[in-house]
Write a structure and sequence with these properties.
Oligomer: homodimer
Largest interface: A-B, 38 and 38 residues
CATH superfamily of the largest domain in chain A: Acetylglutamate kinase-like
Structural class of chain A: alpha/beta
Strand content of chain A: 25-35%
Shape of chain A: globular
CATH architecture of the largest domain in chain A: 3-Layer(aba) Sandwich
Radius of gyration of chain A: 23 Å
Number of strands of chain A: 22
Number of domains of chain A: 2
């Protein structure tokens, strides 16, 4: 049997009891005959506590030092997990990102993996040990400084290691049994999805389903690594994220599910002169401030005024920075007004089948209209339709959409649909 | 001006406020024109909390993993301290023991420094930055595993770095103004000692004065690094630990001070056959269990029985292990009985002058007798006389001795005499 990479999020290793439970699961996998490499996040709220401490000392902590600080979180969880495994009679060795050969660029706080040279991991599993690797962290190629990978970093570490080691599967553990057709906290009869293609999973992840992080799915798709999303609290099969041809066409529904995202904010630049290059100026300035933009909509210009409105969505946390950038830009782009709204959210309908099925968007919009929900912005891809609605109407929009496409089951899953930490 | 190495213990960086206070002191030293290298311990109780966590998961945590875990403590304090310094407008860079080039052997939990290759530290100070180094930790030469130096590790890191960098002084900060003739908590009029030789400081450290750790003083003596022991809470001059010729003979008293140690336990092996090699068997077995023995006393054998009693003292924490070792040895060394007593302590009179001053021990023992204190064991070196007494009588013994040798001042120092963490 081959190598299995298992990633456990912060909620799975929140305390000593959780760590012992995870240790048992790891040893069981090892006893089945697999070589096991484990990637672990920081315990529970550790990262938030460390951030608190940093903010007590400095309003804007130095980026290099913030990475040094935050990586203490995984150092603690991995060492304690290795102890718990050793205590069960199975040798385990923990490795920092640097020791595991996770080489990154030097962008502190959002470093990208350049290379993985897992020589010490290979040696550890050759020696019969379980290797425990700190997620979320690496070492920069040039400066040899400690870096962190930013949001979703531990998932990405796991997939990158699975790729470098030629693992047969990368198991991503959290506190839910996989991916559902909607968040079961909002839609109690949401259906569990047994298999999903990379593309649909990407759209789910990009549009607010917190179960897997975008970067990790992108990495897995590029290198064709099967991901098994499952719960560390049960032994149920989770959701397999695989190539489209491995998704049984008989069971593949037209619509995969409804995702939602409460973390969006919307900025409208009102009265932009309708001439070539103005939009480029706006989004170049935004990009230079390292702010990621999600949806962009430009209205058709009213010929009489030769002015246009440009709206875009972005993460709420980037809102203040974007407003600052655009205010500085007022002399260059002579727009009239800036409107910032962080009381918005995004609801997305995702399905590989929708491109060949006419009338999907009409049915989606009708369902929202019937529920009394006003659509603020619309954006589509080949396998997704997203709308921006008022934050207060997100839950209603998800329920209405889920019902309109008959995505529910008769059974109600008793799960908590939570985030994956980092 | 040259390089100053400053070491701050856990009590100096116990919280965000303490870290900011220490940051200001570091920046002030830098502004005076010195290159500053800082060695820092884990914040306050961090180490104990991490040990608690380890014990929740495993009764006997794997040594390699315990080192990985504990080193998270300094990682946190050094990163936060670097942030606080950067916030004051002075560049600071933190380095792990490994990054700072602290190369050790592979004895987890009690590693010894083999070499220091501080290339990155030299570069940082050449760039005008303050270098912050994690105390207590290193990396093993062969396995490249993370190691810890054991008790007093951070002090040792500081002195080792001061040696490798050719620093003009190694300042060891804690919460007291240096070394006193006795613990001021027991003897309120204890006298502050401005200068002390390495040898006397070694005896003080080895015999319970918690202000400096034995290993660090040994290292400093070997490489002739001046140590300045001082408080991070005041700007008073502390105690300089230097070569004997630099201790002004006019001010050098015959007796330096009275040290005490509450952490001792005593084991008596009763009825050991009085023949060649029996003591060797006992202490070989103890040494193989990596237990450090302090004082050893063997009574003259009563010829009639051809049996003898051997008593020795050791750290209370090693007591259970030593009893186990000796119980296993009963078949080999046919002794009669084992007596374990952890309600003992050691009081030591230290002074380079005592070797040329007759009557010191007589005066010492008389002072104890006058105070109604029974002496259990006696051990002497050229510059020290130690006695083992009942734990409940330690304070009385210290006070009686301090008074008998006129060591007190008229002023009472308002200080708290605490430990230095690690």
């Amino acid at each position: 049997m081959g190598i299995v990479v298992q990633k456990y999020g912060g909620s799975s290793v929140a305390d000593a009891q959780g760590i012992k439970r995870v240790a048992k699961r790891i040893v069981a996998t090892k006893k089945e005959g697999h070589d096991v490499v484990v990637v672990v996040s920081a315990m529970g709220d550790t990262t938030d506590e460390l951030l608190d401490l940093a903010n007590q000392v400095s309003p804007l902590p130095a980026a290099r030092e913030l990475d040094m600080l935050l990586t203490a979180g995984e150092r603690i969880s991995m060492a304690v997990l290795a102890m718990a495994i050793t205590d069960l009679g199975q040798e385990a060795r923990s490795f920092t990102g640097s020791q595991a050969g996770v080489i990154t660029d030097a962008e502190h706080g959002r470093a990208k993996i350049i290379d993985v040279t897992p020589g010490r991991i290979v040696q550890a599993i050759a020696d019969g040990a379980v290797a425990i690797v700190a997620g979320f962290q690496g070492v920069s190629q040039e400066s040899k400084d400690i870096t962190t990978l930013g949001r979703g970093g531990s998932d990405t570490t796991a997939v990158a290691l699975a790729t470098a080691l030629g693992a047969e599967v990368c198991e991503i553990y959290s506190d839910v049994d996989g991916i559902f057709t909607a968040d079961p906290r909002i839609v109690p009869n949401a259906t569990h999805i047994p298999r999903l293609s990379y593309a649909e999973t990407l759209e789910m992840a990009a549009n607010g389903a917190k179960i897997l992080h975008l970067r990790c799915v992108e990495y897995a798709r590029r290198y064709n690594v099967p991901i098994h999303v499952r719960s560390s609290f049960s032994n149920k099969e989770g959701t397999w994220v695989v190539n489209p041809e491995e998704v049984n066409s008989m069971e593949a529904a037209i619509i995969s599910g409804v995702a939602h995202d409460r973390s969006e904010a919307k900025i409208t630049v009102v009265g932009v002169p309708d001439k070539i290059g103005e939009a480029a100026k706006i989004f170049t300035a935004i990009a230079e401030a390292k702010i990621d933009v999600d949806m962009i909509v430009q209205n058709v210009s009213a010929a009489a005024t030769a002015l246009t409105d440009i709206s875009f969505t972005l993460s709420q946390t980037d809102g203040a920075a974007a407003v600052r950038v655009l205010t500085d830009l007022k002399d260059t782009v002579a727009y009239e007004q800036l409107i910032f709204n962080d009381a918005v959210g995004k609801v997305s309908l995702i399905g590989a089948g929708m491109r060949n099925s006419p009338g999907i968007s009409a049915r989606f919009f009708q369902a929202l209209a019937d529920a009394g929900i006003n659509i603020d912005m619309i954006s589509t891809s080949e396998i997704r339709i997203s709308v921006v609605v008022a934050e207060s109407q997100i839950d209603d929009a998800v329920r209405a959409t889920h019902a309109a496409f008959d995505l529910g089951t008769d059974e109600v899953e008793a799960v908590v649909y939570g985030g994956t930490g980092r």
